[in-house]
Prior knowledge:
The protein is elongated. By secondary structure, the chain is mainly alpha-helical. It has a domain at about 1-95 and about 105-175. Mean pLDDT is about 80; it is low at about 25-30, about 440-445 and about 460-475. It has 21 helices and two strands.
Amino acid sequence: xxxxxxxxxxxxxxxxxxxxxxxxxxxxxxxxxxxxxxxxxxxxxxxxxxxxxxxxxxxxxxxxxxxxxxxxxxxxxxxxxxxxxxxxxxxxxxxxxxxxxxxxxxxxxxxxxxxxxxxxxxxxxxxxxxxxxxxxxxxxxxxxxxxxxxxxxxxxxxxxxxxxxxxxxxxxxxxxxxxxxxxxxxxxxxxxxxxxxxxxxxxxxxxxxxxxxxxxxxxxxxxxxxxxxxxxxxxxxxxxxxxxxxxxxxxxxxxxxxxxxxxxxxxxxxxxxxxxxxxxxxxxxxxxxxxxxxxxxxxxxxxxxxxxxxxxxxxxxxxxxxxxxxxxxxxxxxxxxxxxxxxxxxxxxxxxxxxxxxxxxxxxxxxxxxxxxxxxxxxxxxxxxxxxxxxxxxxxxxxxxxxxxxxxxxxxxxxxxxxxxxxxxxxxxxxxxxxxxxxxxxxxxxxxxxxxxxxxxxxxxxxxxxxxxxxxxxx
Length: 475
């Protein structure tokens, strides 16, 4: 959301006088004098400010909020007054409710924030003046300025109030071809999306898309509204499909993602189209349709290769590997995952390296290739050490330890099957030292077993296991 630059505020006479006594403004009157009893204040004003009118005296005596309200009513802006008064009441109610939940609630009362009161006074009265003249575009612009001004985490509910007002006014504007109405639908879609109401958000984004289709409208930042509508719809449909997949409603999830891919094509943005294919492919995989998933994901990888987007290509290869693994095509899945590791390493994507290496380790471990499994699990563990990610480090450490245990078990079985003195001596030594056993092949084809110390990862794994299973001593 683009925030408009602040405009100079034209204040009324009462507001200008009242603002002089605010704590944030320089004041010629000592603050101590302003907190005295009413008679003392009247005496002070009579002595020092002879000739002031009753209204000017009231400007010093009343709060800034009250003076703003008096100005609105005096100038005939009763609708602006009602709206401001309702906002102030809701502001106080929300602040009080938040204060009850948290003692350290930082938000100040509205009467202590004169800049916000100034903006509300100026643009609400301008909007009411435009309403009297029937200038709906001006009403929209003034309300939209207020929505942008309150676009922050603390005042988001005020922003939403003015988004709703903009939406009501935009439907009355007929001379711009529907651009303001399209923008208002986009704002309402964002409002519902932030509140987690995805179906309502999708309805507004669909209306936004219909109004912006085929138009060359742009927003304040120069982005085409049609493309923004496609992006918003694609994001909302993906979030809806995630919920459907969680509920195992695969048919509806696939249906809505097919619709998303069609909208992405219409947006004429290849990257967005590729993302739609990616989510659709994963949905087909979850629904148990690997062949269709593979075809859709191949489209995604082709688009990523065309765009020379290596990160997206790596993500496509990883998804394709999962599909191939589900079909039992382990060798092909391994080849794709090796490509993922290479791409992620070249682009310094350590988390992708860890994930792909772990998947490779699992595949090799399942096929009984324990040496290869150990190699990739160790690569995953070494990468987590560089990231200093302790939870992930412990997880990869366990994978690595299991693969090394399988590797040692294979060597021990071979050592037992060898049935010679050297192998027996190796087994007895291992029982005393618990070192790693490896088989060294010599020229005549026989095997000689040697003992090697455990790697630091395995030693730390033993420490981790010892700390977990260490018995608690009662005192």
